[in-house]
Queue: 3 jobs
Job 1
Amino acid sequence: MNLAFREAEKASIKDEVPVGCVIVKDGIVVAKAHNQTIKNNNSYSHAEHIAIQKALKKLGQTYLIDCDIYVTLEPCMMCAGMISLARINKLVYGASDEKSGMIDSNIKLKNIKHIGAYPRKIISGVEKEKCANILSTFFKKKR
């Protein structure tokens, strides 16, 4: 989670919403990313999306079955869908997202019937205060 947090810090410096993501396979980092929606002028350039694309390309695979994903903020609907479609083994996230989070806060991902795959394990609240603070500080500066 510390590496994901460092990615969130990079996003904040670039005036992007500070969310960071890291994908790990067998204890080795295969991809890391942070939000780049402003840089890419693209509303779906979320940290998870970019990291998943990088991991798939690096590993030369269609799925990330043996991979774990660490993200500083509870994934939104789009990212939750990508994590499921990529068949990621384990999801670990920091801060909950009461507004847009779709793992536990709003829609409970595992309660949606007929989705082909879910992360086998979901761990929430890892470094949640640290992850929430970088977001609240960022948005306070914006206002």
Note: The two ends are 28 Å apart (CA to CA).
Job 2
Amino acid sequence: MVITSERLKHTFSEGGAQEIYREVRDKDDFLGFARRYVFDNDYRVARSALWGLTKATDEELSELQVIRNELIDQAIQTDNSSVRRLTLNIIERLKMDEDDLRTDFLDFCFEHMVSMEEFSGIQTLCMKLVYRMCSFYPELMDELKRTLDAMEIDYYKPAVKCLRKRILRGKFR
């Protein structure tokens, strides 16, 4: 089957996402696929495209390194929580160096990792990304630890509590 926007609009299952991934893999066109569909204005198209891409290996996703900043912009700007979570999932799997630090993205991740209005999947992805960005700078790592210490942890889901504890104990990564 050919991948089209219309097909992506109607992909609602794990099997459908796996099928999209296999077709993109077989064409070896992760970057072209991402550029065509991941930033679509219809959140259903973007969501399904991103969902399919999350099935890729880290090596396959490395093709998307060249559009990491566009992915970051999407994660920051989208109002759709599914698109945000899936975009953050892909960003988290891409390479990040000290020179790649974007303070707007760091601020975004700090804000969303502690936000009680945010879904726990987004909170944990933001926490992982903050940890990675802060690991390059001791003063930022201190800020992360202070922020984690100040969290009223009783109000968070188990995934957030567990990751917080692992980071504070130095057992993450």
Note: The chain is about 65% helix and 0% strand.
Job 3
Amino acid sequence: MTIRASRFAPACLASLLAVCIFGSAQADEVQVAVAANFTAPIQAIAADFEKDTGHKLVAAYGATGQFYSQIKNGAPFEVFLSADDTTPQKLESEGEAVKGSRFTYAIGTLALWSAKDGYVDAKGKVLTDNQYQHLSIANPKAAPYGLAATQVLAKLGLTDKVKAKIVEGQSITQAYQFVSTGNAELGFVALSQIYKDGKVSSGSAWIVPAEMHEPIKQDAVILNKGKDNPAAKALVDYLKAPKAAAVIKSYGYQL
């Protein structure tokens, strides 16, 4: 019996080790609510994050206002990457987030974009010419980029003139999709959706000057459900480090 036990001990030990490793992997996952405009950068960052730290990032994408409601209703998110700075601050003040964990991870840039080459000029004159039939924007009540778009329209005196032409998406992703599928000739999108490595990757665009709308300051915060998860803290630290910062900047964000 002693000999048989010694022969099977390695197998038992291997099984036990596999259980331990599996349990560790589960503990090292972090559930992240990500503002839709930051989809491409966080997908690029996630692979490096897992490789460099061993932790796994599990992301959900959507509008900031919708995420606020979900978090208030008990959604299992542990870190929130917002498209503004007011929503994380509000969650912190309401006791839904870890105090002192909030920081600005990016400053967004708004762009007027068409999927057609040459349709949008470099100064956005196409907007004031008003020859298009549909203009896509994100819901200004749920998406900070949508709010910024309405501020640009107001500054140009176009609010009433284009009101009947607006096609509204529930998130910046849907606003982008309306343009990319041809349901709108042009629309206001996040620069990060159409920009990579220093240039617009498709179609034509006007990069909206920052002074034409309130700053799109995007804050991150650790939520209460992530306060004891080391992967949540690791992600926040990783987003502040040079490697992630370089990725964020490559998508047209300011830091």
Note: The radius of gyration is 22 Å.
